[in-house]
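Slide 14.
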Amino acid sequence: ATRFQHILVDEYQDVNPAIHNLVDLLASATAHRNITVVGDDDQAIFAFRGAGPGNFQRFAELFPDATVCALTQSFRSFQNILDAARRLIVHNRNRLESQLKTLDRRLIGRPDNNDDDSNSDGSDSDGQQNQMQRAHFLPFETGVDEAEGVASTIQQIMNGNAYPVQVVEADDSENGAADSDMRYGRIAVLARQNSDVPRIVEALAQQNIPSCVSGGLRMSAQPEIVLLMSFLCALTQPTDSRFLFNLVTSPIYGFPPALLARIMERVNDRHTTLRQELERLHQLGSARGGDGNEDGTDSVLDDAGHELIAEIVDDLHRYETMAVTSGVRHVIAEFVTEKRLLDVIESANDMVREERANTVARFLRCFENMEFTLGTDRTAFVVPYLQALQSFGDDPLAEEIDMVTDAVQIMTVHKAKGLEFDYVFYVGATEDRTPGRLRKPDLPIPAPLLRVPEVNRTMHIEEERRLAYVAMTRAKQHFFFTAASHYGGRRAQRVSRFVTEALSASLGADSAAVLPPMSQQPTATSTSVAGAEFASADDQQSMAEQQSPSEQQETMPLSFTR
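Slide 15: predicted structure.
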């Protein structure tokens, strides 16, 4: 009981109820209940794990005499970024600072050197803010335009033509490089949705900008991996027509859509599988000259159709035989080589092709640990195991963050937490993406079993706002919101309310320079800021009334000491 005299818990906002109870038990076992927890409720972004900003409220209930210390010095971001992040996060009602009225968590960050008369808080001798604008919004017409715009901006940064690095300390960068020596690895693109990633990767490759997709953005979303997984599952799960359907419609085989529609109609009518139907057509062979079948599928097959079906069926038989005697990595390598997968999948240039080759290589390496765990490398065992891990959320294809390679880092906001970059782009800043809609769980948990409150719309928006806040506070030099009016749907997108909350209040008459218009018309229920469509004025006024005038700067982690 006296083993631990002092207990320190870091990142306390990320603990779930089980860990919270464990901390209580450990602290209770010490002679003087000596415990210190450090965290920031504004960075509580793991609600899906049972964590939340309420952790500090529960801690205060357990230790009512705890001392609260606000850590108010930031050594990462410039003041202008911190101010914008502050304006964003104060719109959340459920904050510790709002509950503890005497708590002041305003942070002093790096001052700009553009004015010798400025004070440490970024103001001049008259108290007026005199800072370089470092939080930006870049609007575009389409998702492709957005990706290309991000790539162009990155290229300008690397060429020293825009948003220059301000040197603060000569030894403040990694590997001993001077702060002014820009590298691609000091730039990050953060995505809220995985669907935004392929456009970014493609646009960067078009301009020969190296990139590294990491940190939870599954490689399984890449087209070459989707095809390979369809191939493997077609071998191991022949009764599931989805995988074979994806395989035959891929560029490897290019099955004619009209013919496939006829075949699938028969599959559905007869309650058979696509594999069985292709086997039947292959066996019939030259049945076109015979009676055929009643639905006429055989009669519409020409020589090319029969040859294609024969190739597909023969390939399936051959690779199934290979999968019995050889390991899964050998089977994949043979398929990639024989079918010239990297040549068949359309590539914009050599860099895209090289990146896809690297993705396939990483895909092969992912099977090494699984083979060791299972004690076998046979496809029939490894592939179902991989699918089981994915279904439980432990996806081996979710890549780790590579901070060594000099490449633009592309990752989720969740994985970026704890990291820092000189330049950060937060793409897809629209209402449909962030905050987006609250999605109810497919399997609701009964109320008596809940350890945390059920998430409602307000809680969802506040969680998403904390995500945007975390994204902003990853940036040291410049931060960019980006958004597009159209991402392929029929309805024009609205700019995220978070852009307005973070940026518009501080821009004033200069807002047009930083918030250029998106090509969409403001609706009757919305207000237009510099031509861009935002949340309604009533909503903005309502949120503003909830905040005190002094809440104009960034928050910083708290240290609770008992």
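Speaker note: The CA atoms of residues 173 and 183 lie 11 Å apart.
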